[in-house]
Amino acid sequence: MNMRTTLISCFWGLLALVWIVVGLIYYQASRPKSDSTELQVFNVIPGMTLKKVAQELSRQNLIRSASAFQAIALIQDKQKLIMVGEYNVSPSMLPVDILQIITSGKTILYPVTIPEGYRITEIADLLEKQNLADKDIFFKQTKNMELIKGTPVDSLEGYLFPETYHFGKFTPEANIVKKMVETFKERALKQDFLKRAKEMGFSYHEIITLASLIEKETGKDSERKQISSVFHNRLKRNMRLQTDPTVIYAIENFDGNIRKRDLKIDSPYNTYRYRGLPPGPIASPGLKSIIAALYPAKSRNLYFVSRQDGSHQFSATLNEHNRAVQKYQLRRVGR
Length: 335
Description:
This protein is mainly alpha-helical. The chain is 47% helix and 8% strand. It has a two-stranded antiparallel sheet.
């Protein structure tokens, strides 16, 4: 009888203890840490377990109890759904709401604008400068030719579409590259563009290559089709394109100055030495340059020279071109 009484007492005592623990967890889980609504950035870094996440939330005074937070995650079967990233949370949020946020994948996103005419190396530097990517890892991912098939080169140069993107601090470099290529496909890989290229006798890779030359030669929308016309006319006549940006692309460590000896560099990208288009794009062209490559202006022009004000003088003959060079280049140098 005494043994039975003892067991019953132990049972009720244990049950009471369980209820106390449950009640304590419920109390801590159903109340915010404080009334402060000030948002804080909370990082879920790669490799963090539920336990580590809960401990860090507690350390940053965002929840009352790490154990209570873990219990909520286990009850809701979300212990394995916590996603890497940066999240905006505040001490006034309930633990269950914080759990919802860090399992939603809706991380803090940062805008980054890729300018038209940027090379892969420049894009990589820009992303690293904004703490959005490791440039070496990013560069390695731009060798993944599974993203764009059918090109004769081993780089995605020209296919990372210039646009404003939004990425999280922990977005994998492979995902960033994939997003840029997907944007290229959406914006530039249109059926009517492909049809037009075929009608002109070009592969689409050649059109993107030509568009990249146009992009690097001018920033004026009004000139893109004129520049395109010059290149198309020279290609038809089997003339060398002789465009400086291709020489710059061929120089490993360009210091900002093209020298006479640079024009003799033995590179398939050197259009002063080799006829036709280079093997691939030298930068990421914008949509306007792609359209210009597909729809050049009608002209007899074979030359152009900078007026030193952002615009160019176009010429149909070498004599006209030489006079333009004398007017806009040599005289200014003499001054």
